[in-house]
Amino acid sequence: MTNALYDSLLGANAGKEKPFLHFADGSCLTHAAFVKVAAKLAHVLVENGLRPGDRLAMQAEKSAEALAIYAACVQAGVVFLPLNTAYTVDELTYFIENSGARLVICDERAQFALLPVVHRFGAELATLNANGSGSVTEHAQNQPDEFETVPRTQEDLAAFLYTSGTTGRSKGAMLTQANLLSNAAVLAEHWRFSENDKLLHALPIFHTHGLFVATNISLLTGGSMIFLPKFDVDAIVDLMPQATVMMGVPTFYTRLLDDPRLTPDLTRHMRLFVSGSAPLLAETHQRFERRTGHRILERYGMTETNMNTSNPYDGERRPGTVGFPLPGVELKITDPSNGQIVPNGDVGQIEVRGQNVFKGYWQMPDKTAAELRSDGFFITGDLGKLDNDGYVQIVGRNKDLIISGGYNVYPKEIELVLDEQPGVLESAIIGVPDADFGETVVGILVAEPGETLDIEAINDAAGASLARFKHPRRLIIVDELPRNTMGKVQKNLLRETYRELFMPA
Ligand code: MCA
Ligand code: AMP
Question: For atom 32 of ligand 1, which residue has the closest CA?
Answer without folding.
Answer: 405
